[in-house]
Write a structure and sequence with these properties.
The structure is a homodimer. By secondary structure, the first copy, chain A, is α+β, with helices and mostly antiparallel strands. Chain A has helices spanning 11-17, 82-94, 195-212, 226-237, 243-251; strands at residues 27-40, 50-59, 69-70, 73-75, 100-107, 118-126, 140-150, 153-159, 164-173, 181-188, 224-225, 254-261, 269-274. The mean pLDDT of chain A is 90. Chain A binds a DNA duplex through α5.
DNA sequence: TGAATAGTGTCTGTGAGACAATATTAT
DNA sequence: ATAATATTGTCTCACAGACACTATTCA
């Protein structure tokens, strides 16, 4: 091992003496907030299907938190990056490859895992749910998200049709000079670890980025109507948008096709595609 | 250790068998991009002192990268968060406590450290350099940053008066749908590890946030003129701003005091203070 | 025919960019 | 008096919010 008194004169010598195992150090997991938008068919044939913002959860089948739901994730191996670990886990749970992933935050509260000190490098992932609806791993399930914001409190309900999970997270500004928040878990029935924090962080990130990036198109199929796209914006932002304003905003991001969607009891809608930027 | 065949029936049983040491896992460091703005006195008594954007570096006195400069940082202990580790390191290097810190990104390329697999949870820190000018640790030094952006290439020069360090980093869009970049180190004389990436990431983060948060006030003293504040904006953004526009933008963020700064060969300037928001 | 969504036109106010003009100092 | 910075006024243009209006389908 490294001798602190010894002046090493070459990197080789140093590395030979270097023994990582002497350091008692944190473990690292990679967790993924995989978001999508689910459709629920309306009984009225004329109405559009209602959309829900949804997140993928996995039921834990062992301790700790056995029986509780959590974000898909796992330990980061010594020969993979945290992003590679995230992709490996996602492929196992959803059979999806090439998912859009963006690093969210590294959560490392000392007691966030009862087993030992475990840090979580958390990623936000976005998918078009229609691409994978039936290929889920048996323990995984999509939960529709309903959020009520009451001052600094987020009251969140997750619903997969069978189970309802609830948690309340308090949003506290870390520094008054910036927009970074600390999230405190006030109430949490059935989610494992500090994953409510990760879910809220992911939702906030997406809410922000939808306004100044093209990130939303990772959740869309190849062709979509502007009405559908607007619905997606609306469930993510949690508010209605005005049609003309919306169309102005996304006008530069989409291309009109010659395809038309008919079938609803109303004026048919032109299908659009994402307009990729030249820079790529 | 955990027996995969065994169905554990209580968390206690599980934890008893759980032995972290069986996992070969990455080590974790915490590194800090500490930014500030330095002043260089002009020979002309009428002119304002020239401002430089600067970063704190530490000279490595052991392998790996012995003799090279790097960001202050160190291994994260088992009983501290990465942010606590960052504060511990900063206190040792600069004698400063209560520094503004914001988590930047977790860098974890597999070979970023020649010793072994080491991930770096990187923080951006901001300080008012006047508060600490002389209390640096002997191995630490402030480097003025000069950046030339040539298409997707950043040509960066760091200068502490004695040494000039240079590196070139290529900025590659990770996904065309968002604003996340991958940085590739094209040229790097004298900085250790992948720290050029961290420095660029920090600069980009600050450039962005200066426009929609009050983050810049972490680099200012209690009283400042609007001219000084504008200079700080200008060195961070790397461009000149128009006076009236600038004043409009920051009007809501500052409070006029009855103090006045005289002494330059020109109209004296009113001193302002940061206007903290009510929400805090 | 009418409920429902698709899509467009246009007014208004806000705010940034640009530039001109005035104010005040130490030497 | 002058060089330098401090500070304000105002015009224009782009754009988001708001609302009204027209278009088109299918049970």
């Amino acid at each position: 091992m490294i001798n602190m008194e010894k002046e090493y004169t070459s990197e080789e010598d140093f590395l030979k003496d270097y023994d990582v195992s002497i350091f008692d150090r944190p473990s690292v997991t990679s967790d993924i907030c995989l978001f999508s938008v689910s459709s629920e068919n309306q009984n009225n044939y004329r109405k559009l299907s209602k959309k829900y913002f949804s997140v993928l959860l996995v039921k834990r089948n062992n301790y700790p938190y056995k029986g509780k739901w959590c974000l898909p994730g796992g330990f980061v191996g010594i020969k993979e990056t945290s992003e590679e670990a995230a992709r490996r886990v996602l492929a196992a749970e959803t059979n999806l490859h090439n998912v859009f992933l963006e690093q969210l935050y590294t959560f490392d509260d000392i007691n966030r895992d009862p087993r030992c000190r475990v840090m979580s490098v958390t990623y936000m992932g976005l998918v078009d749910k229609n691409k994978l609806d039936d290929s889920l791993f048996e323990n995984a399930s999509w939960f529709n998200i309903t959020t009520l914001e009451d001052n600094d409190y987020y009251h969140v309900t997750l619903d997969n049709g069978n189970e309802q999970l609830k948690f309340v997270v308090k949003k506290v500004l870390k520094e008054e000079t910036t927009d970074r928040y600390k999230f405190e878990i006030i109430e949490n029935d059935s989610l494992a670890f500090d994953h409510p924090k990760a879910i809220i962080s992911g939702m906030e990130r997406l809410k922000n980025k939808i306004n100044y990036t093209d990130i939303v198109f990772n959740m869309m199929g190849e062709y979509f109507t502007l009405g559908e796209l607007q619905q997606v914006y609306e469930v993510i932002l949690g508010k209605k948008l005005l049609d003309p304003a919306f169309r102005r905003i996304i006008a530069g991001k989409v291309i009109k096709t010659d395809k038309i969607q008919t079938g609803g009891g109303h004026r048919p809608s032109v299908l659009f595609t994402y307009k990729r930027n030249k820079e790529s």
